[in-house]
Amino acid sequence: MEFSKIILELKNSFSLRKNHVLILEALEKENLTADEICSKTGIPKGRIYELLNFLLSSGLIEKGKGTPAYYSMMNPQENVRNFLKKKFDENVEKQTQVMALLEEKSEIEEIKAINGVEEFCFALMEALKRDNNFRIIMGKEASPYTFHTLHPKDDDDFIKVRKMLIENSDLRQSPVILSVNDSTVLQLNRYFNEAFSAQKSFEYIFLKEFYDLYVDLLCKTFGLDKVLWRRDRLEKQLAEFNIKMYVLDEQFPFYAFISEKEVITVLEHKTSFSGIKIRSQKAVNIFRDLFYDMIHRAKPIEYHQMQIEEKYKGK
């Protein structure tokens, strides 16, 4: 999409003023001082710094060192992602404050349908921002994204892995793989990374069939040496972050994301997708008990990771 259309959408959806838009359009083309921005946009000098400070605090522009300072948009798309994330976080915090006030009077129980994969991703972002402890039962093709989230924060590499998954015939019918755009997946990836870095608690259960498929695809795409490097890095990150992973050699057709206060669960079949969000302590307790019943039948991921070299060496 042309950047001018993105700026227009920001203006319409997030109440950017006309002068904000003029500044963004000017800085997209070149780095400018405050005086130069005034000359190019016609904005009075007495108002320019208020406008620039708003754009700086929103993450849409950067300010260089030196006198006079130059303002810039070094990476416009990344800046817009940061701005959207900041606005999303602010909305989550406001919702959390209102819910806390309501819960002082009564226990809230809510069941909400999740209509589509985009809505599912945003429900996960809300929970990752708000809560601190997560138990996740990974269904089907969702597993690879989790492993890649723990790898270096390289968006190009992430998109390469995503393309590899989309092109795989065993996953081609998946609604999660096909119907989420790259920007949404990258934004969700950032929320997981922030939660990991904040030492929030995660426990995962993966389906062995799709864990094996992911490792096989990685070996074919990147080679065994890089996969072994990723394996060793994952081992260090599991120790560094508050994360435990298990692999279960059973079939389960659903995905469940269990936090302290709610359960987000999704059922998939071929290209069909249906999800619900249940905000209920009773539901949380039921799914938590299910999760630990499954862990008793699973093996720690370290057991499977140690078999990679022996399985793929010489292939």
List keywords for this structure.
single chain, 315 residues, alpha+beta, Arc Repressor Mutant, subunit A, Endonuclease, Chain A, eight-stranded mixed sheet, three-stranded antiparallel sheet, 15 helices, 59% helix, 17% strand
Description:
The protein has 315 residues and is an alpha+beta fold. 25% of the residues are buried. Helix 3 (34-41) crosses helix 4, helix 6 (117-130) runs parallel beside helix 10 and helix 7 (142-149) runs antiparallel to helix 8 (155-167). The two termini are 42 Å apart. Helix content is 59%, strand content 17%. The protein folds into two domains: 3-75, Winged helix-like DNA-binding domain superfamily/Winged helix DNA-binding domain (Arc Repressor Mutant, subunit A, Orthogonal Bundle); 107-312, Endonuclease Chain A (Endonuclease, Chain A, 2-Layer Sandwich), CATH 3.30.870.10. The strands form two sheets. Strands 4-10-9-8-5-6-7-11 form an eight-stranded mixed sheet, sandwiched between helices.
CATH fourth-tier homologous superfamily of the largest domain: Endonuclease Chain A
Strand content: 15-25%
Tell me the domain tally. Answer: 2
Terminus-to-terminus distance: 42 Å
In the CATH hierarchy, the third-tier topology of the largest domain is known as Endonuclease, Chain A
Q: Cα-atom Rg, whole angstroms?
A: 23 Å
CATH architecture of the largest domain: 2-Layer Sandwich
Could you report the average pLDDT, rounded to the nearest whole number? 79
Order of helices and strands: HHEHHEEHEHEHHHHEHHEEEEHEHH
Low-confidence stretches: none
Helix content: 55-70%
Task: Specify the structural class.
Answer: alpha+beta
β-strand number = 11
